[in-house]
């Protein structure tokens, strides 16, 4: 009888410990989204003119404004931090909203207010659209063109340049500041791909007008679009969409649940190896918001700052 009581006691104690661990993980999952991670990465760009050496490009995305318990405080925090950093350009890689409301103005008005600290700076801002901007929760949903057009119009009214399968040439002013200008030998190009799920990504159109050897950076929402880029056309590309998997296995930071389910085929976050055509390099940003659940575990929201250097 004594031994049975000991066994029951041990089982109850183990159950309490497991329960406490699970509760702690859940609580942390609710707290972690407010801790913003700033990742600084060197980006080697072939044929980068010397005057562009050391220039900085910041990347954020996946705000998902409109989801229940959306992470709007961190979106605003990210905008303020980037404004303080004063990078030379900012790329916003889609999913500004989560799902369009009955009054779609509400979400984009909220977005405008949240990123106002960034919008009111003189930093050039560029964007692409994501699947949620088309009100697509999965790839089989019917894209809502009206929703995407509203997001596009709102961004343009804020002064954000939308790069939908097109590129722009950037130049340096006399004050060594970055601005959009006419193509010249010392230009640095930014190209953007259309959203992947509504099958809008058109690399040929996006790259059209960029001289073959010109230095460039390619932005997109979904990492899967990267596979469509021709060899040596994207020495630096950045995507979002994955939220870093949103949940990572504790003590195994390279494993997200997506990586485990997809048997390491998921392109979740950071530099993605062995993916895409030769000479192309992809970095996946973890974004700020959520999908489905307002939790992040071992995948804090991210601002990526790329420091350009000649390859």
UniProtKB/TrEMBL annotation:
Keyword terms of this UniProt record: Hydrolase, Metal-binding
GO molecular function, one term: metal ion binding
The Calcineurin-like phosphoesterase domain, residue ranges: 56-244
Domain of life: Bacteria
InterPro entries registered for this protein in UniProt: Calcineurin-like_PHP, Metallo-depent_PP-like, Metallophosphoesterase_sf
Stored SUPFAM superfamilies: Metallo-dependent phosphatases
GO BP annotations listed: lipid A biosynthetic process
GO cellular component: membrane
Pfam annotation, one family: Metallophos
Name by which UniProt lists this protein: Metallophosphoesterase
Species of provenance: Metabacillus litoralis
């Amino acid at each position: 009888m004594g031994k049975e009581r000991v066994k029951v006691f041990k089982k109850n104690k183990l159950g309490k410990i497991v329960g406490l661990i699970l509760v702690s993980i859940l609580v942390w999952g609710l707290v972690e989204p407010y801790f913003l991670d700033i990742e600084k990465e060197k980006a080697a760009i072939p044929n980068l003119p010397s005057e562009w050496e050391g220039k900085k490009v910041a990347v954020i995305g996946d705000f998902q404004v409109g989801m229940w318990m959306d992470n709007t405080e961190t979106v605003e925090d990210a905008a303020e931090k980037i404004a303080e950093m004063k990078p030379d350009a900012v790329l916003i890689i889609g999913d500004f909203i989560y799902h369009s409301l009955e009054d779609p103005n509400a979400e984009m008005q909220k977005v405008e207010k949240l990123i106002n600290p960034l919008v009111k700076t003189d930093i050039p801002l560029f964007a692409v659209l994501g699947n949620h901007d088309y009100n697509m929760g999965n790839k089989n949903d019917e894209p809502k063109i009206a929703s995407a057009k509203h997001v596009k119009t709102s961004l343009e009214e804020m002064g954000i340049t939308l790069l939908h399968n097109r590129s722009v040439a950037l130049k340096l002013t006399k004050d060594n500041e970055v601005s959009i200008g006419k193509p010249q030998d010392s230009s640095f190009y930014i190209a953007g791909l259309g959203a992947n799920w509504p099958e809008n990504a058109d690399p040929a159109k996006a790259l059209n007008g960029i001289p073959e050897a010109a230095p460039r950076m390619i932005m997109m929402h979904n990492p899967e679009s990267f596979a469509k880029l021709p060899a040596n056309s994207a020495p630096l590309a950045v995507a979002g969409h994955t939220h870093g998997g949103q949940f990572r296995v504790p003590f195994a930071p390279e494993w997200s649940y997506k990586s485990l389910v997809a048997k390491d085929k998921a392109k979740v976050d950071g530099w993605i190896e062995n993916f895409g055509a030769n000479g192309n390099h992809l970095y996946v940003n973890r974004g700020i918001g959520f999908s489905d659940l307002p939790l992040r575990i071992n995948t804090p929201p991210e601002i990526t700052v790329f420091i350009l250097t000649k390859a």
